[in-house]
Specification:
The structure holds two protein chains of two kinds. Chain A is of the alpha/beta class. Chain A contains ten helices and nine strands. In chain A, helix 4 links the parallel strand 3 and strand 4. Chain B is 13% helix and 35% strand. A five-stranded antiparallel β-sheet of chain B has the order 2-3-1-4-5. The chains are: A alpha/beta, B mainly beta.
Chain lengths: 305, 153
């Protein structure tokens, strides 16, 4: 993984994932467990789409490792507004930073960026494609609460445009998991993702209703129906609010069920769930920092190389 | 019988005959090869010619040009049954079937409007070739039907 790129979770083996999660656990219990002195390390943050958790947790992570960031800021305040290509932008930032964290509205953007620079590129979300570092913190959270083998997980919501879902599904196929996908028909997993999961021999079932499978779940991963990804507002309105988890919903669930969400949520998890033992989503968000510290520490290599 | 039908399209002295193209794909064959006659080569096309193997087929004859192996491989995306005949002095000196390449570059456009290759970026389209389709290397979209419509013209 050292000096590599993190473009999709498909590239991560079980050993890669466990190395990051183990290192994150060590860092979380002892902040000095990070391997390298990062006081000379600068991370470039290029977010072409809004972000709160991902961007701030990367910034926090590198700062806690002793490094710093250069931040492109909003697209409107950057040369992108003048028509600069992504290829040019990353080549410029390569001269300022030791690694690039890129969020972009187009699928494949991180891969393209990685072809133009020699510093590591970390995909922080590419349109409806992938979000591999979210997956690492998701897996960290799942491992803490339910373990990663002999796991039954339900993944519900916008599975079509949900990049966190695609990345998580790929990564889970490294483990002994049974994956149940719940969505309206119009928001099912992209067929290419299903194709890949079947190729990997993953246990995958698709449903339109949560009810039949809820009692057997160890984890329920809920995602937002992403209004901004719909080409047609009418299509969004047809499915908005259709899937909502409430305390009543969870009466049929196991006491051990963890309810997760990459956040932000809108109305898919009722606030009443927050105070139940099921709610794991804020813990999940907090885990972004130790996991990204571990990833950066392993990925960026020796600072004196 | 079949020879008579082939004679509907004149024989060439030197060049390539692409035979057993699925009916209706001849123009796409030319498009995928980037052949539009602007280089002065003679091009003959037979469409919907009766065929023992395909019922009906198209034939493309390109005078004065021998296709490279890479070009032949790319043809497999839209003409998997095609046979390639290299002609010199009116004789067929080589005859072989197309084979599917592992990937193709700069030939097809990704149909995914959200793909980075659809943006104004300096990127050459690249697709992995699957058994039954192609897959964009950037956005990972799989296309199984309508591949001729993706040919960059």
């Amino acid at each position: 993984m050292r000096h590599g790129n993190i473009l999709t979770s498909k590239q991560l083996s079980r050993a890669d994932i466990e190395a990051v999660l183990d290192h994150a656990a060590a860092i979380e219990s002892d902040g000095s467990a990070a391997v390298e002195d990062r006081s000379e390390t600068v991370l470039g943050l290029l977010f072409f789409e809004p972000s709160t958790r991902t961007k701030m947790s990367f910034e926090t992570a590198i700062k806690r490792l002793g490094g710093d960031v250069v931040d492109m800021g909003s697209v409107d305040a950057s040369s992108v507004k003048k028509g600069e290509s992504l290829a040019d932008t990353v080549r410029v930032i390569e001269g300022y930073a030791d690694g690039i964290v890129l969020r972009h509205p187009r699928q494949g953007a991180a891969k393209l960026a990685s072809e133009y620079v020699d510093v590591p590129v970390i995909n922080a979300g590419d349109g409806a494609g992938h979000h591999p570092t979210q997956t690492l913190l998701d897996l960290y959270t799942i491992r803490e609460n339910a373990g990663l083998d002999d796991l039954t997980i339900g993944i519900m919501g916008d599975l079509k445009y949900g990049r966190t879902v695609h990345s998580l599904a790929y990564a889970l196929s490294n483990f002994d998991t049974r994956q149940h996908f719940v969505s309206p028909e119009s928001l099912q997993l992209p067929r290419e993702v299903v194709f890949d999961l079947h190729q990997e021999g993953a246990s995958v079932k698709e449903h339109e209703s949560l009810d039949p499978i809820l009692p057997e779940l160890d984890v329920l991963y809920v995602t937002r129906i992403q209004r901004e990804r719909f080409p047609d507002e009418n299509e969004y309105q047809k499915v908005a609010g259709e899937y909502c988890i409430t305390t009543e919903t969870l009466e049929a669930a196991s006491d051990e069920l963890s309810v997760m969400h990459p956040l932000p949520r809108v109305d898919e998890i009722a606030p009443g769930v927050d105070t139940t033992d099921h709610a794991t989503y804020f813990e999940q968000a907090h885990n972004g920092v130790p996991v990204r510290m571990a990833l950066l520490d392993l990925l960026l290599g020796d600072s004196d190389e | 019988m079949s020879e008579n039908h082939e004679l509907r399209v004149s024989k060439i002295k030197n060049g390539t005959v692409i035979d057993h193209v699925h009916a209706g794909q001849a123009l796409n064959v030319l498009a995928i090869l980037g052949i539009d006659g602007s280089d002065g080569e003679g091009v003959s096309i037979g469409m919907n010619v009766p065929s023992d193997r395909l019922a009906t087929k198209d034939i493309v004859k390109v005078e004065g040009r021998e296709l490279s192996q890479e070009e032949v491989d790319v043809l497999s995306l839209i003409a998997p049954e095609a046979t390639i005949n290299i002609v010199r002095e009116y004789d067929v000196v080589e005859k072989h079937r197309v084979e599917r390449p592992d990937s193709v570059e700069g030939i097809l456009s990704c149909p995914n409007a959200g793909c980075i290759t659809a943006a104004d970026e300096p990127v050459t389209s690249r697709f992995d070739v699957l058994d039954d389709g192609v897959r964009c290397v950037y956005c990972e979209r799989i296309v199984r039907d309508g591949i001729p419509a993706l040919i960059e013209r």
